Amino acid sequence: MKKLTMLIVALLTVMFLGQFSGAKDAMLTPVQRWIDQPDLAEREKARALRPMIDCINVADSRWRAAYARYLNRDRQPDPTLQQRFPEDFDPAMQVRQRLNNLTRNDAYGCRLNLLQKDHLQRWAPQLLALQNQFETSLTLANEAAQGFDFFNAVPAYSLSPAEKAERDAGFIPLVEAYLKASDALRRQLDIEDIALRQVQLEQLMGRGELKYAHVLTYMLQARKLMLSLDHAVTENTLTPADLDPQPLQQAWDDGTAYMAANPATSNADYPEKIWAYVRDPGSRYVSAVAQLRDDWAAKAPPQQLSDDVERIGRRYDELLQVYNRQVEPVF
Fold it and tell me: Using an 8 Å Cβ cutoff, are 330 and 286 in contact?
């Protein structure tokens, strides 16, 4: 029973990408091959992608958030934030956010060792050059950031405009190069990972593991919404249609109905545990999307809309972190 649970969770481990960027599509392997030979190409490929996805979910997402804060250091606080997003000012939420702040050591977790690179070369060779460029550019930006108070949540000292301009002239080009490399890696990694998740969803359904299939369907819908929004923001084509959380809400409602109609047989029934843990962060994610939709309809100022978009990214990241924490220990 334990072996079967571990295999199901291995199938289910999402490793979705945090913050913004992506793509899609899939290939299908007969279900019986996965059951009879769990270490097939899909499983080996998932193992090859795992270190990069861990890096994207932690160090890369934290680096992007820290850089956004750095660029906005001189901006006056928005007095409407607490009214629009009261949950952000909850003490427990603020503690979680502080624990998730970037450190100067996070970037080192993105360096693949020789064994990991050999595995990547074998199972996803199209990613190796992108990973190498990403590692190099992130290292350069991270080393430059260690020369001042970039890693502080608030500035440690003040600079004159001329001094900051001089510092930024050397620092910002390094970060822009890193972000360009990160975007390229994220796009290709998303293509590979979503393909695997679609294969795994078909296999779960084919084996009758419908509770796990509902969990994975919900997470795939959450990701699809994020990727759609990301594309619209990047291409400057955002419309109300990109802000429709109904498919995600429907996936939640369908899963909840199925879980209720097929109750757990013991307290150790794992899909119900995952479902319970993702409920609150999933609800906050949907609420953040709805807030942007409402502010868009109300013709809110551009900065307010920008804040809304940034918050959706954070809510999505929180959902992924909660989900992955429940799945990874078993995997």
Answer: no
The closest of 134, 137, 55, 135 to 102, measured between CA atoms, is 55
Domain extents in the chain: 2-327
Separation of CA 257 from chain center = 27
Tens of pLDDT, residues 81-124: 777 777 776 766 655 665 556 777 888 889 999 999 999 999 99
Q: Three-class SS of residue 25?
A: coil
3-class SS of residue 254 = helix
Residue 175 is predicted with a pLDDT of 96
- Number of other CB atoms surrounding residue 62 within 10 Å: 19
Cα–Cα distance for residue pair 58/320, rounded to 1 Å: 11
Cβ contacts of 63 within 8 Å, gap of 6 or more: 102, 106, 107, 138, 141, 142, 178
Q: What is the pTM (predicted TM-score) of this model? A: 0.76
